[in-house]
Design a protein that fits this description.
By secondary structure, this protein is mainly beta. It has helices spanning 109-113, 125-133; strands at 4-5, 16-19, 25-28, 48-50, 67-69, 74-77, 90-91, 100-101. The chain is 10% helix and 17% strand.
Length: 144
Amino acid sequence: MSATSRQPASFIPIQIEHQTEDGRVFIDMPDDGPCTSCGVCCSHYRVSFVAFEMDVSPGGTVPSELVSQVNPVMACMKGTETGGGRCIALRGDIGRPGIGCAIYDNRPTPCREFPVWMPDGQPNPDCQRLRAAAGLAPLAARAT
């Protein structure tokens, strides 16, 4: 995948956005970003994706042993099948420093596309809602 950064060179990375050749925006978080002390989204959403993202398909990267096949076309991360469950790849305690994804570099598309901040610099409302429900402090807006 060829990706180009959408941030100016002087930007201090809080959320690193990459645009793929097909126009999708993938998001990476730095090692000291807010996700490393949260993990709420990874224990709430059903993580569904096209089955060809599994490592048993050419070019796929998501470890198949961590995936439940939903139908011939779709799959989801184990633990998230019904929503509200913890992803099998999540390591650590929700809301505690050091929480993270065991397959971060091989995570599926929905995980790569979930933004913590919106393009205008405001925190993602879904992220804020989940953080509040877990008793975590809200995130501040970031400068754009």
